[in-house]
């Protein structure tokens, strides 16, 4: 019998549409202005914390829509943006710096849909807005790091030249080298003269000192490098968070703007973006008595560090390796089920670790975790003052020569291990940063422009529907049903893909696929008309019309799909957004225009004796 689908095929069509409609449904519920609270390493979120938040809001006469603890975090929903901002400031003052308090836009999806894993489609900054962070870079710390690298370099060069020195130390933006003897002074003066680019040297023979001063050009280059590298690293961190089409750019001399669209866990984003964490690997000093160091008599060449689990440990001042050489890091579990971070180094880092561990088998190597936190105070120039916190998270005996891959333990919980691996993969910030401003932002295109764009899409869609009904009668209604179903499928698929974000160029891709879906139906319907004119029966005309148009439709859509894949591969930002919706729309339009309309046509006209068709 012509034009009859088997039962399984009809059920497949219904099932695909039903699943897509289910996952597209959350987009109808909108979002709530919310505040998200998560604990730092030194605190935990408990029911008592929730009660503190509720009590603080009640005393301030702020009525939240809901306060709930979800996955060790507190999510407070508000009725308005004004209540959201007031609530954020109040909660921050109540809980203090042990907690991360971040603005959020929480989906208002019902619990039964959340239970099925159905979430709304993510929208880009141009359509929805997002979270805005303004960050300030600590330039003094950037200069300090450069100076420390110079100090280490000078010490190594003098040792290689067998020139004895009393000390090499920083003095503000200068580095002062004090030599032991007059002969050492003269040899060092000759050796160091104009050796270090970006520094001018001056000498004092009486005190046997050589002072290297950073030039203004070097200072400017250092500050510019710190900003550009921090921008790059922040982009890497945003990518690790899985945020699509973010905005990360420099603003002024020492500030960076970060705007994140569609972020659900803004507390984690705030913590990871603002963290200035890195690792140092040093040998444990076992030759000196730690009790002398704890009493204030720290041996020359050593440094006292606190342990994360308590107590102190004495380490060598010489750093074997820093986090700058880490190319990959992943969290996992050791043989005891404790959290660990697996480290992969670059070639230079692997060589350094191999050389250092070769002569240190049997000795202990410590992993030092270093982070910078804002003190909330500012210096005379108004710059934020940062506090350097360093602690030893593990100290293990080197049993064999190490290479490019090894692991560190003692990192705390699995969540802390995951966050540390994200930071290490993205790279350590060149200088500490502090979030000085945080707010939610509206759509970058302006609501009026967005409304006009949506109106243009809707009018175009309505005109297409009207034309199809006018020109193809009942078969036009079938095509219109397929077009509406196609939109539901696109929205459903976009909502199911975790990294997919809809932007205005993406909406243009949807409009294009709607037109292509109409083209497919036009080809089919015109072919059916030709078969009818050729004196075939209505059932034969439908059968041959679909079969004959299939190859033409497939060729046109496959070539367009290839173009979409190329656009996604080589494009960035808006181009990728357009390519994603175009590719999804091509696949769904082929499904609805060929299989979907065929199922409707077969159900209405298939297997019946017909004298004519309403086409």
Q: How would you describe what is shown here?
A:
The protein has 615 residues and is α+β, with helices and mostly antiparallel strands. The protein folds into four domains: 7-25 and 445-605, Multidrug efflux transporter AcrB transmembrane domain (Multidrug efflux transporter AcrB transmembrane fold); 30-108, ACT domain (Alpha-Beta Plaits), CATH 3.30.70.260; 130-275, no CATH class; 277-428, Gyrase A, domain 2. The chain has helices at residues 7-24, 47-59, 81-95, 111-115, 139-160, 182-192, 216-241, 266-274, 290-294, 347-358, 414-426, 447-496, 504-533, 538-570, 574-605; strands spanning 31-39, 66-70, 73-78, 99-107, 122-123, 130-137, 165-171, 174-179, 199-204, 209-214, 247-251, 255-261, 277-283, 302-306, 312-316, 321-322, 326-333, 339-345, 364-378, 384-397, 405-409, 433-441, 501-502. It starts with 6 loop residues before the first helix and ends in a 10-residue tail after the last helix. The relative contact order is 0.11. The mean pLDDT is 81.
SSE order and pairing:
Elements: H1 7-24, E1 31-39, H2 47-59, E2 66-70, E3 73-78, H3 81-95, E4 99-107, H4 111-115, E5 122-123, E6 130-137, H5 139-160, E7 165-171, E8 174-179, H6 182-192, E9 199-204, E10 209-214, H7 216-241, E11 247-251, E12 255-261, H8 266-274, E13 277-283, H9 290-294, E14 302-306, E15 312-316, E16 321-322, E17 326-333, E18 339-345, H10 347-358, E19 364-378, E20 384-397, E21 405-409, H11 414-426, E22 433-441, H12 447-496, E23 501-502, H13 504-533, H14 538-570, H15 574-605
Parallel strand pairs: 5-23
Antiparallel strand pairs: 1-3, 1-4, 2-3, 6-12, 6-22, 7-8, 8-10, 9-10, 11-12, 13-16, 13-19, 14-15, 17-18, 18-21, 19-20
Helix pairs in contact: 1-12, 2-3, 5-7, 7-11, 12-13, 12-15, 13-14, 13-15, 14-15
Keywords: Cell membrane, Membrane, Protein transport, Translocation, Transmembrane, Transmembrane helix, Transport
Family: Belongs to the SecD/SecF family. SecD subfamily.
Transmembrane segments: 453-472, 477-497, 503-525, 546-571, 577-601
